[in-house]
Amino acid sequence: MDPRSFATIVAENETELARLRELVNRLSDSDLKKPLTDGWTVAAALAHIAFWDQRCIILLDRWERESVADSATDEDSINDALLPLTLAMPPRDATAWAIQATEELHRRIAALPAERAALLLSMPESIWLPRSDHWAAHAEQIEAAIAV
Description:
- The chain has a single domain (6-147), classed as Four Helix Bundle (Hemerythrin (Met), subunit A) (Up-down Bundle), CATH 1.20.120.450.
- 73% of the residues lie in helices and 0% in strands.
- It has seven helices and no strands.
- It has helices spanning 6-26, 29-32, 42-65, 75-88, 91-110, 114-122, 132-147.
C-alpha cells in the first residue's frame, strides 16, 4: 500500500514523465547503445520501461472490464526474458515506444475516478499507479551512463 495521496502520485508521475521526455530528446544514437548493468543498454532500458508501462495499461483495461485483482509477477524472470527482445529492438523504436507508453499510462492514471484509484492504491501491489519511482530510477541510470 502506497502512503502517498493519489494527487501526489499523479504529480510525481507528471514530473518524472517530463524528465524522461527531456532525457530521451537529447539522447544521441551513440548514447542509446551505451551499456548499463547486466547486459542492458540505454535503449534496452527504455524498452523495458515501455514494456512495464504497457503491462499497466493492459491491467487498467482489464480492470475496467472485470473486477480489480492483484496481478503478481516474478519481475526478475520477466526482465531476464525481456532482455534479448529489448536488445534486438532498433534503439529509436525503443525510445518512441517508451515515450508513447509512459504518456498513455500517465493519461490513463490521471483520468482514473477517485474510487478506482483508491481501490488500486489499497492493493498490496500498488506499484502500478506510482510510476515515477520506476521512471526516475531508470532516468538516473541512463543519465549516469551518458555522463561518462
